[in-house]
Amino acid sequence: MLLLRLFLGGLLLAYVYGVKSVVGAAAVAQPQPLEPFFRGLVGGAAFGLTAALVSHPFDTIKCRMQTHARPDRGAGPLARVRSFYRGVGPATLASICFRTVPFVGYEATTSLLRERHVLDGTPLAVAFLGGVAGGAMRGLLETPAELVKTRLQVGTSWRAAPLLRGLYSTCLRNGCAIGLYWVLFEATKPAREAFLPPVAGSFAAGGGCSVLAWAAIYPLDTAKSCIQAGNSTQAGVAQQLARIYRISGIRGWYAGLGPGLLRAFLANGGGMVMYDLVQAKLRE
After folding, report:
1. What whole-number distance in Å separates Cα of residue 216 and Cα of residue 117?
2. What residues contact residue 224 under an 8 Å CB cut-off, 6+ apart?
3. Distance CA 107, CA 41 (A)
4. How far apart are CA 284 and CA 273, in angstroms?
5. From residue 238, how far is each of 2, 190, 248 by CA, in Å?
6. Residue 99 · residue 178 · CB < 8 Å
7. Structure confidence by residue, pLDDT tens digits, 192-215
C-alpha cells in the first residue's frame, strides 16, 4: 500500500505541475522556463536512451551470472556476441519510458517540498524522498518489461509467466537505489563543482554515485532477477536471499557484481551527461 500511495502521489504531483505549466504559459506572453514535470520528462527520456544504448550487454552478463543461466552453450562466436543483445528492444523502450518516470517524480516531489518549506534544513532527506517516490513509480510500471527482459536474457519463455511477477522486489530495488543515488548526488555536488568541469562532473556524478548506490542494494537486485527468472517458487525477497545464501553463501548475493557495476557506471554516467545538458537547455 505504501508503494501504491507513493506512485499515486507522484502522479498527482506530476499532474499539478503539468497544469501549472500550461496555465502559466497561457497567462504570460514571454517564454518561461519549463516546469519540473516537463523538465523531468524530457531530461529523463534523454537519460534513458543513452543508458540503454551503452549498458545492455553488461546487463545481460550480470543477469546470467545472477541466475546461473547458460543459454548459448555450444553456439559459435558470432552467435554468442549477438546473444548479449537479447532483449535489447524491450530494454531500450523500457529505459526511455521508465527512466523518465523517476525524474518526473523526483523533480515534482522535491519542488513541492521546497515550495512548502518541508525539511528545509535537510536537503539530503528531500533528495531521498524524491528518489524513493520516483523509484517506486518506476517499479510499478517497469515490472512487466523487466520480467520479459530477464526471461529473454536467460533463454526461457516469458509467455507463461505472470507479467507482474517480481512487482514488490522491483519497486523495493528501485526505491532504495534511486533514493540513495540522489542522496549521494546532492552530497557530492560541492566537491564536483569545485574540482571538475561540467561534463566531467556530470559523468562522475552519474557513474560514481550509481556505483555506490547499486553496490549498497545489489542483493535486492539479485533477488529480483531470480524471482523473475523463475529459479524457484519462492516469490519473496527475504526468502530468495535466504535460498541463495543456503546454496552459495554471501557470494551468491553479489553474483555478477563486476558487470553490474560497470554497466551502472557507464549507463548512468553517460545518461547524466545527457540529462544535465538537456536540463541546462530547458532552463534557458
Report:
1. 30
2. 146, 166, 169, 170, 173, 237
3. 10
4. 17
5. 18, 38, 15
6. no
7. 989 999 899 999 999 999 999 999
- Provide the grid cell at 80: 554468442
Residue whose C-alpha cell reads 502521489 in the numeric block: 9
Asked whether 280 and 218 are in contact (CB, 8 A), the reply is no
Backbone angles phi, psi at 155, to 5 degrees: 80, 30
DSSP designation for 34: P
Distance CA 256, CA 143 (A): 21
Instruction: Give the residue among 95, 86, 5, 4 at the shortest CA–CA distance from 46.
Output: 95
Choose among 188, 178, 202, 189: nearest CA to 130: 178
Contact predicate 46/278, CB 8 Å: yes
Q: How many Å apart are CA 55 and CA 79, to the nearest integer? A: 19
Question: In one letter, which amino acid is 215?
Answer: A
Please tell me the pTM assigned to this model.
Answer: 0.74
Is residue 55 pLDDT above 70, yes or no? yes
Q: For 8-17, how does the pLDDT look when each residue is reduced to its tens digit (9 = 90+)?
A: 455 444 444 4
* Helix boundaries (H) for the chain: 2-27, 36-67, 77-83, 88-115, 123-154, 167-187, 189-195, 198-229, 237-248, 250-253, 257-282
Average pLDDT over residues 96-120: 86
* C-alpha cell of residue 199: 561534463
Is the distance from CB of 222 to CB of 66 less than 8 angstroms?
yes
